[in-house]
Amino acid sequence: MQDFISGHACRVWPGGACIAKRATRCFHCGCKLSFTMGIGSAMPVGATGSTVPRRQLGRYLRDLRNQARLTVRKAAKELEWSEAKIWRIETGQTSLRSLDVEAMCRIYGAPTDLTDALMALAKETKARGWWHSYGDVIPEDFDVYIGLEEAASELSWYESELVPGLFQTEDYARAIIQASRTDDDDAEEIERRVHVRAARQTLITRTTAPPTLNVVLNEAILRRPVGSRKIMARQLERLVEMSQLPNVCLRVMPFGAGLHHGIMSGPFVVLRFPLNGDGKPSEPPTVYVDGFTGALYLDKEHEVGRYTAVFTNIWDASLDKQASERLMASAVREMEQ
C-alpha cells in the first residue's frame, strides 16, 4: 500500500491522494508530482487485507469515469458488464484483475502511466488478511468491515442492544451465535465464528498503532443476561477490564438520560483512519451501520458529519468514565446474586 500513496495535495480533488507507481502527473489537476515512497504506512502492513486497496482503486476508477463523463450505465455497456459490477468495483466491494483495470482505463481515456499504476494497485486488491481463513463463517461483505476495522486509527461506537464484538467474552459470543444459528450450523462452525470474534480483539492491544476506541453502551446491555447470569457477570467484568486500557474510553448511556439521539439512530460505528504525510486521512472516514438483512457503508461528507454530530450528542449525554465504571461494577454484583 505504501508504494502507491503520494503526499501530493490535489487542487481538484481535496482530500484525495495520488497514486505514485509510475504516474508523473496528478490526473485530477495536472500538477507534476514529486513522490515520496512510504508515506501512509501508519497502517499495520498486511493488516487490512484487500479492503483498503479495493476502496482506493474504486475511488480512482469512479473519478476517471466521471472525468470521462460516462454514466455507470454507459460504462457498463462499453465494457459489456452489468451496472452492478461497476457499482461493486467503485465501492470497493470486490477485487479486480489487472486486465479488467486496463479495460476500464482504456474506456475512460486514462494515460498509460496512470493505467500502469492502477493495474499495479489492482494486484493489492487480492491481498489476504487473517480473516480470509474464516471466509466460510464470516457473513457476506463483513470481511470489508473487518479490513476497515484493522486499518482504523479511531472508532466512535454506539451500541444499544449487545456488547460490541470487540469486547465480547467467548461464552457471551457463543450464546449470541447459538441463538442466531440456522439448522445448517454445526458445533464446529459455531466455534469458528467464536474464534473470529476473539481474533478481532487482538487489534485493541496490538503493539503497532492500536486504535483509539470511544464507545457508548446503552444501559440495557448491562441489565440483559445473555447465556446465563454467570456468563453475563464475566462479560461485565470484561467490560470493566477493557475500560482500563489507555486506548479505550467506555461510557454507559443510563436509562435516566431519557430521550437521546442514539434512540433514533440505532447502533453505528464511525471509523477514522491514520493520516498520510500531507496530514490528510489515508482513507475517508466511514460510518458502518449493521442491519438485519445487510450493512451500510457511508462515506459521503454529509453522512459522516451527521453521524459524528449524533455521536457527540450521545457522548455528552452518557455517564463519564468513572460513573460508567461504577455502574458496570454494580451490574456485576447484581448478576452474581
Indicate the topology.
Elements: H1 51-67, H2 72-79, H3 83-90, H4 98-108, H5 112-124, H6 142-151, E1 154-159, H7 170-179, H8 187-200, E2 212-218, H9 219-223, H10 229-242, E3 248-253, H11 261-265, E4 268-272, E5 286-290, E6 295-298, H12 301-317, H13 321-336
Parallel strand pairs: 1-2, 2-3
Antiparallel strand pairs: 1-4, 4-5, 5-6
What do you see in this structure?
With 337 residues, this protein is α/β, with parallel strands linked by helices. The protein is built from 13 helices and 6 strands. A 6-stranded mixed beta sheet has the order 3-2-1-4-5-6, with helices on both faces. Strand 5 and strand 6 form a beta hairpin. Helix 1 packs antiparallel against helix 5, helix 2 crosses helix 3 and helix 10 packs antiparallel against helix 13. The longest helix has 17 residues. The protein starts with 50 loop residues before the first helix and ends with a helix.
